[in-house]
Amino acid sequence: MSRRKHRRGAARPAAPLRVDAFAHVEPGPDGTDFHVRRIPAARAVKRYRCPGCDHEIAPSVAHVVAWPEDAFGGAGERRHWHSGCWRSRRTRGVTRRWS
Question: pLDDT tens digit string along 13-44?
Fold first, then answer.
């Protein structure tokens, strides 16, 4: 059986920067950096409105919480997104503007 050749120096996607054990930094919908946490279905107990599609995120649905990097921990800046909406945030954009 032949051995596989491994390429050295092949470009790997950069791993997201870790903020703490649960959050990491990713570019947000407007290009600025956002802290992001993944919320598993077992911990999702409230209803939220996704800014990506303007639909409701029901309890027991896994989703993403994101907030601007400069407002770390600020409850007023956190937004709950459907996981798919967050993944496509660059092409989809924000449908709901928050005041």
Answer: 555 555 566 788 999 888 888 889 999 999 99
Which residue has tokens 């992001």? 36
pTM for the full model? 0.70
Number of other CB atoms surrounding residue 96 within 10 Å: 11
SS3 for 59-86 is CCCCEEEEEEHHHCCCCCCCEEEEHHHH
Taking CA atoms, 86 is separated from 7, 13, 19, in Å, by 32, 18, 18
Name the residue among 50, 59, 44, 42 with its Cα closest to residue 83: 50
